[in-house]
Amino acid sequence: MNLKDYKEADIEAVLELKRAALGYIEEIEKAIWTDDMPAATGSTLKLYESLQRVRVKKDIKRNERNMQLLIQELQSKGINIMAIKKADQRFRR
Questions:
Q1: CA–CA separation, 79 vs 87, rounded Å?
Q2: Which of 41, 53, 65, 79 could lock onto 74 through a cystine, CB 3.0 to 4.6 A?
Q3: Domains held by the chain: number
């Protein structure tokens, strides 16, 4: 994905998550130096959750792009996407 494919709000959210992750890394290092394993474990969990949120945001963006490519390909072959979406919505009820 190129930078232009992302919304400014998405970029800001990821940068904020990165800042939080750096803080968690500092907490982990401090806890390890002071032999506070419960604190190190808790900070490690927070770090993992922060990185997981970044991954989820990236996956959502990639899935949106893949769906757009699929829609374009199907439309170029004359397939009515709206009819498929309506049928899918009726099926899910």
A1: 13
A2: 79
A3: 1
Cβ-Cβ contacts under 8 Å for 6 (sequence gap 6 or more): 61
Phi and psi torsions of 65, nearest 5° = -65, -45
| Contact status, residue 21 vs residue 51, Cβ threshold 8 Å | yes
Summarize pLDDT for 47-75 with one digit per residue, the tens.
999 999 888 888 888 888 888 888 888 88
Distance CA 77, CA 93 (A): 29
Q: Dihedral, CA atoms, 83, 87, 88, 90, nearest 10 degrees? A: 140
The Cα 31–Cα 47 span in angstroms is 14
14 φ/ψ angles, rounded to the nearest 5 degrees = -65, -40
Other residues' Cβ atoms within 10 Å of the Cβ of residue 43: 21
Domain region containing 10: 3-92
